[in-house]
Amino acid sequence: MDVITKDQFSELVKQYERLVYTVCFQLVRDASAAEDLTQETFLSAYLHRETIPKGYERQWLGRIAANKAKDHLQSAWNRRAVLSGEENPPVSLSPPAEEIALAREGADAIRSAVAALKEPYRPVCRLCLLEERTPEEAALALGRPLKTIHTQLARGKRLLRQQLERSEVHGHLPT
What we know:
- Helix 4 packs across helix 7 and helix 6 packs across helix 7.
- The protein is built from 7 helices and no strands.
- The chain has 2 domains: 94 residues, RNA polymerase sigma factor, region 2, helix turn helix motif (Rna Polymerase Sigma Factor, Chain: A, Orthogonal Bundle), CATH 1.10.1740.10; 80 residues, Arc Repressor Mutant, subunit A.
- It is flat, with a radius of gyration of 18 Å.
- The chain is mainly α.
- The longest helix is centred in the middle third of the chain and has 27 residues.
- Helix content is 74%, strand content 0%.
């Protein structure tokens, strides 16, 4: 198996950085932790780059990201249990069901929020955020100039952030 070069790995990071961050964020629901876990994922991937399965880079990185996030949740759960005064924190190899449910609920909220966007933002955000296509691919698919896609994506993200923050403040998720 060929070991990829630093330049090839840099391209891999550029291509899958958003995917890895999204996987981490959906599980941990904390932007700062998701950024740290994204870095840890790519560091681990770099250290084990000789094992990258050719043609399955996306799945491989997604699995590493999910495992890093699960490890983080498990350690965070144990720290909370110890700090709360429990003598024997729960011993589990997976995050608590509540954490998993919250991650799924968050992903559903994002999907719902994207579906609620108005034109022209909905198709751009669906392609780039949910289907993880590049802006170039979205421009081709939608027949729009790349600069327009970048603008609509930035505005769509801002609208999504506002919508999700409003729903958090009001204690409910968008439907």
